[in-house]
Amino acid sequence: MKEDKLKLRRKIYRLVAEHARTLDSLEDVYNAVIDSVGEDINREEAEYRVRAALGTFEEGEIPEEVDFPFISVIEKACREHPGECACNQVCECKAISKSGGKGKPVLDIDKCLSCGLCIIACPEGAITDKAEIAQTINLIKKHKRVYAILAPAFSGQFGPEVSEEQIKSALLMLGFYDVMEVALGADMITIKEAEEFLKRMDRGDDFMITSCCCPPFVRMAKGFRPKISGMVSDSVSPMVAVARFIKAEDENAKVVFIGPCVAKKTEAKLTDLKDAVDCVLTFEELAAIFEAYKLEPGAIEVKMPVADASHDGRIYAHIGGVSKAISTSIKNLNPNINVKMRHGNGIRECKQILDAIEQGNLEANFVEGMACIGGCVGGPGKLKDPKTSAKAVDIFAEKSKVKEAVLNTAAQILAEKYKDKVELSSHKM
Questions:
Q1: How far is the C-alpha of 420 from the C-alpha of 418, rounded, in Å?
Q2: Where are the domains of the chain?
Q3: For 343-395, what is each residue's pLDDT tens digit?
Q4: What is the CA radius of gyration of the chain?
């Protein structure tokens, strides 16, 4: 995305947050933001962009609750680049085509994996996703117990000098009741997946396919690869797991997930998962809220401890982290098992691996897939370079006093306490 388009996108996010802070009506927020950005772009494009930032692609009333679809094309913003545009190039599922032979992109929602990579690939910012910035702010206004859950990729996203403790403190200052690591849920799911792998190998399965934390890969494997869909783990994502445990512990809780992933917006609204997370924010959207509230996390002196998860739960954020965490737990449970790992780095590699499984020529018995290059740290809602972020994730992971997921007593206690109440499996994605 061109720099000027990225700045416009983030300006709109900031304005939505600024006005949502003082205005309760989403219609009032819309009108206030439109008045502020009308001079930057033509009215029709401005209306579409602002409405998307408020959670809708349709004309009419702004919804209190955001729903499908989550990605759309802003026709007035498209400059019809000749030849193969960047948005087409990154879409491995061929969900983007050109209308009537012209250059304007058309999105086929039925084919779309909701990865969001086309959003940042489009130079004109002509493809956009819905945001729940105003809905999150209203949620905090209306409910006393709104929890923020942070994706493992949050380390380093707000700058090398900003600690994880300062990010947590900033979120509490925004009005969140508490802040927890999604990596705690990763610890729970790591143990579940390790046990599932052992059961599958005992019964003679050839493969187990995972990356429950990556909805686009799971959808590709389950929905677009029917021959191998039965090899995919039925685990819910760490996001859903930790949100469900929070709500089991606190019946008045509302939960907001914060991460780099656009696909999480879709996942959170799926029928059998929507009980878990109430709103989803990207790091990009959270940064706009911090700016609107004039909060500088790096300047906060009070630092709240962040100590929910193990080293292995935290490394879910980058490519290979899921494989490493689960294989470590597998070896802990059964040192004699032969674990042969493969991981797909990006949708293209994931597709190649799935092809190899179908053809019966993949030398592995455990497969991890990540839609974004580098893993979650490469998500479209990120703020920093994936390689830099991955290093920050590893540094934070090393600070954990618990190294392996199976040794996280907090995760074990929660899992045991609510084993009959919290569902960690799902057959839909």
A1: 5
A2: 3-134, 143-154+174-281+305-429
A3: 999 999 999 999 999 898 999 999 999 999 999 999 999 999 999 999 999 99
A4: 21
Positive/negative CA dihedral, 140, 130, 117, 109: positive
CATH topology of domain 143-154+174-281+305-429: Fe-only Hydrogenase (Larger Subunit); Chain L, domain 3 (3.40.950)
Through-space distance between the first and last CA atoms of the chain, rounded to whole angstroms: 29
Q: Decide if domain 3-134 falls under CATH 3.30.70.20.
A: yes
Identify the bridge partners of residue 211 per DSSP, sorted by sequence position. none
**Model pTM above 0.85:** yes
DSSP string, 355-387: HHHHHT----SEEEEESSTTSGGG-TT-SS-HH
3-class DSSP string for the chain: CCHHHHHHHHHHHHHHHHHHHHCCCHHHHHHHHHHHHCCCCCHHHHHHHHHHHCCCCCCCCCCCCCCCCCEEECHHHCCCCCCCCHHHHHCCCCCEEEHHHCCCEEECCCCCCCCCHHHHHCCCCCEEECCCHHHHHHHHHHCCCEEEEECHHHCCCCCCCCCHHHHHHHHHHHCCCEEEECHHHHHHHHHHHHHHHHHHHHCCCCCEEECCCCHHHHHHHHHCCCCCHHHECCECCHHHHHHHHHHHHCCCCEEEEEECCCHHHHHCCCCCCCCCCCEEEEHHHHHHHHHHCCCCHHHCCCCCCCCCCCHHHHHHHCCCHHHHHHHHHHHHHCCCCCCCEEEEECHHHHHHHHHHHHHCCCCCCEEEEECCCCCHHHCCCCCCCHHHHHHHHHHHHHCCCCCCHHHCHHHHHHHHHCCCCCCCECCCC
User: What is the distance between the alpha carbons of residues 129 and 55, in angstroms, rounded to a whole number?
Assistant: 8
List, for residues 384-422, the tens digit of each pLDDT value.
999 999 999 999 999 999 999 999 999 999 999 999 999
